Amino acid sequence: MSSAVHTISLSNRDSQFHCNEQQSLLHGVESQRIKAVQIGCRGGGCGVCKVRVLSGDYSSKKMSRKHVSADELNQGVGLSCRIFPLSDMVIEALD
Amino acid sequence: MKKGVMRPGHIQIRVLDMDAALGHYCDLLGLIEVDRDDQGRVYLKCWTEVDKFSIVLRETDEAGMDFTGYKVIDESTLEALENELNQKGYPTTEIPAGELNGCGRRVRFTAPTGHSFELFATKEQPGKWGISPRNPEAWPRGLKGMRPTRFDHCLLYGDDLEGNLSLFIDILGFDLAEQVVDPEGNKAAIFLTCSSKAHDVAFIKHDEKDKFHHASFWLENWQDVLRAADLISMTDTPIDIGPTRHGLTHGQTIYFFDPSGNRNEVFCGGDYHYPDHPTVTWDAEELGKAIFYHDRELNERFLTVLT
């Protein structure tokens, strides 16, 4: 069964992309060949793909505490390679 | 002048998820698991390595390198280097024997770039994996993944390259095999060797201290590098660049990332260095060609994506 596809809009870039629930936001960005977020290690370690979630639901995987503090995580800041959408989302790129 | 430091001995790498890390390091890269300890660390090695382990993985909440250790020729050499480090402004900490399973006492110090280095003289030597030291066959059956033969070196990013140069050459007896120099004569990269390999450790100039660029593993030939590239694609593993050749050291290489974002390299070939050889110099204006000999153009990620 294919998972739901969500629309992800960037508040501070003039772009949006589509992403399913099995894809990280960064994977969505990469698969549509748009330059919305910087691509780094793709593993939650280097911190270059940092974004702030402004609206929408998502799940996330473990990411490096060096780049995202516990407080930031609670405020919806995270690495887009570790964030998976559960609804349409609006995000802000932080690079 | 050689001071008794023989070779890279081990590196402890931080990972976010141990199961994912082992899938990468054992099944894809092809390292062999040899032990675990009560801290949850997992010990790995490449098949030609005589010592018990070379890679230690530690699960925690950030990626990067904890420390890397070099093996010296004997315990009296370790003691002499320990004294010299302390006398010359590099205070050392002793890590007792057994803190890493099967490893003797380690002498730890911080390099001017902020990285933790260790020296040690003793580690259990179970021998090469899967072959006998007597009438040895060419290679063991049952290797997985990219089948690397050894942990070769690491590349680290940090600020005080001149400080590291003095530490590694004057105290630890390394040679400067290759360097990148800017028009003002400042060093942008230094490749240091304690053997006849092109590098046993390398540093690239960067504003922050204590950054980890990659751990590198040796393959036998170019066909193995291409095969590694195929495995990276088959497993959808994040790739950085390659297969290609470096200008610096002329190694044939491919770079990719582990599941925590730490960069790995597998490579083959390249230059050698003896103590009487002059240092090879690349001009910073030629940095693109120095790093990626074929594209002759740097990808930004190679300089900025670090753990």
From TrEMBL, chain A:
Pfam families: Fer2 (PF00111). The keyword Transport applies. InterPro entries: 2Fe-2S_ferredoxin-like_sf, 2Fe-2S_ferredoxin-type, 2Fe2S_fd_BS, Beta-grasp_dom_sf. It comes from the Bacteria. Transmembrane segments: none annotated. Its cofactor is [2Fe-2S] cluster. Residues 6-95 form the 2Fe-2S ferredoxin-type domain. PANTHER family: FERREDOXIN (PTHR43112), FERREDOXIN C 2, CHLOROPLASTIC (PTHR43112:SF10). Belongs to the 2Fe2S plant-type ferredoxin family. This is 2Fe-2S iron-sulfur cluster binding domain-containing protein.
